[in-house]
Design brief:
This protein is an all-alpha fold and 388 residues long. The chain contains 16 helices and no strands. The protein starts with 9 loop residues before the first helix and ends in an 18-residue tail after the last helix.
Length: 388
């Protein structure tokens, strides 16, 4: 049951704070991970790539564990397991286990991120109420982006990889203490053994996946691309991240108040405008404005799709639904990272931005099936149309 229209309550904000600290810890080791592997452990550039990549591979696999865990054992247990796994990763980094230890730590961190997000997102929707699911997911995203943005700064300030790893442990412990204060009365559902339909997730998953094709383009090639056009990359990326934080915090509830299909497609249009402008190599002022428009548009599709799906999914399957939708994100971001690199090498950086624009057409087509008027044949995530 949702809370009053005027407040989300203390336990909701404890949850958001825990998410922030969890992702803050994940971010602390990122700026020094590569140098640590190359300089301290004697690894190669290829080893750096593999150690970084194993996180995403393990996170993807773990999505199919974290969802059922949250549904059957409770959101609190899934979230605490994720935070604990991230803390263990920090401890492993400090062990004298060399490169195998780095791989092991990244595996724990991948599992931790999957459980952290799945448990937090499903729990936030339950606390806020399904009618405010978009707002809840927007605040969760704010906690994630805030933590991921602040983590690298704190990790750099720490001065060494070992201190950054220790800070990850501290951040995870702080998050667990916050979670411990949040009451949850988990009651196993009589049909807890049922699973979410993978086939039924195709349309919403494809919509989310295609929207996120742009992310590795921005993360990997924005600064390089704009270095040839006034060198505004760092400022442009800051504008992108800052607008996302602002929009998801203050405007994340829009899909709850108006038709989510409207916010979804409006977001796609804004993203297409921003990406198209960036592909042209604009001067600094226009580049910063374009990334701001891109960030604004990107603030809405996830919440629009996920809230629509969760409203059609029985409560005892919502954790699994979140996990599967997140898996599409992992798959598309991973594949588009390789594609963006290949296109940039062969045709130049604008080709990667063009790829991201084309991907939005795929998102628009998939969205047609997500936001269609419900019928008996509509694609659903749940295995049955049972009410809560």
């Amino acid at each position: 049951m949702g809370l009053s229209a005027h407040t989300l309550g203390a336990r909701f904000w404890y949850l958001i704070a825990a998410v922030f600290f969890g992702f803050l810890g994940i971010g602390t080791v990122l700026p020094r991970l590569g140098p640590h592997i190359r300089q301290d452990l004697g690894g190669s550039d290829q080893t750096v790539g593999l150690v970084v990549g194993v996180f995403y591979a393990f996170a993807l696999i773990s999505r199919f564990v974290s969802g059922p865990l949250a549904d059957r054992k409770g959101r609190k247990l899934a979230l605490a397991a994720g935070l604990g796994s991230c803390g263990i990763a920090g401890l492993i980094y400090l062990m004298p286990w060399g490169i195998p230890g780095a791989y092991l730590a990244r595996m724990f961190q991948g599992f931790g991120e999957a459980c952290l997000y799945t448990g937090a997102a499903a729990w936030a929707v339950e606390i806020a109420g399904i009618d405010r699911s978009s707002r809840a997911l927007g605040y969760i995203s704010t906690g994630i982006w805030g933590g991921i943005s602040a983590g690298p700064l704190i990790g750099t300030w720490a001065g060494s990889f070992e201190r950054a790893a220790a800070l990850q442990m501290v951040a995870s412990a702080a998050a667990i203490l916050l979670v411990w204060r949040i009451p949850e009365d988990h009651q196993p559902h009589p049909e807890a053994g049922r699973r979410v339909s993978i086939a039924g997730s195709l349309a919403p998953g494809m919509a989310i996946g295609f929207v996120n094709v742009h992310y590795p383009v921005i993360a990997g090639f924005l600064v390089l691309h704009l270095s040839q056009h006034g060198n505004s990359g760092p400022a442009a990326f800051s504008a992108y991240a800052g607008v996302i934080l602002f929009s998801r915090f203050f405007l994340g509830g829009l899909p709850d108040r108006i038709e989510p299909g409207v916010t979804f497609y409006s977001g796609l249009v804004a993203m297409a405008i921003g990406l198209s402008a960036l592909a042209l190599g604009p001067p600094p002022a226009l580049a910063i404005a374009a990334t701001a428009v891109l960030g604004f548009g990107f603030s809405f599709p996830w919440a629009s799709v996920a809230s629509s799906v969760l409203k059609r999914t029985p409560s005892h399957l919502r954790g699994s639904a979140v996990g599967i939708l997140s898996a599409y994100y992992d798959i598309f971001v991973g594949l588009s990272s390789f594609a963006a690199g290949a296109l940039s090498k062969r045709f130049g950086y604008p080709a990667a931005f063009a790829m991201a624009v084309v991907a939005l057409l795929g998102a628009a087509i998939a969205g047609r099936f997500v936001f269609a008027t419900p019928t008996h044949s509509q694609v659903r995530l749940s295995t049955a149309a049972a009410a809560d």
